Amino acid sequence: MRAMHYRHAYHAGNFADVWKHAIVFGILDALNRKATPWSYVESHAGAGHYLLSGEAASKTEEWRDGIGRLRAASGAPELAARFLEATSRIGACPPWGNHTHLCTHTRRTGDFVAVQWAAVRVAPWGYWRHCFTN
Predict the structure, then answer these.
(1) Measured CA angle at 8 (ends 29, 74), to 5 deg
(2) pTM of the model
């Protein structure tokens, strides 16, 4: 069987990617309504930023039917509008961020974000490449 090689840069910002990030954002938004701090741990984060105007994304232009359509829509529901505002704060156009950026820009004092970038293959499971705390 031939090995499959997935490169997220070709698919960043597409419908499924936006859906996934919007769900995480919605969960964090709900957690932020509570006084207790939350923790976010991700074991296989992507590159972090993907240029939607870059070579890979330009080949597929999948982002146009994802984040491109959402940004162009008018009358977005309140949660979608806050999601768009949060992604614009991280400079998501033309770059597109990942969960790590949403979490670090959504967290409050006391919330914890720990991320293991998947690209760092030499790090064992228990070693976190970056830890973010306020």
Answers:
(1) 45
(2) 0.76
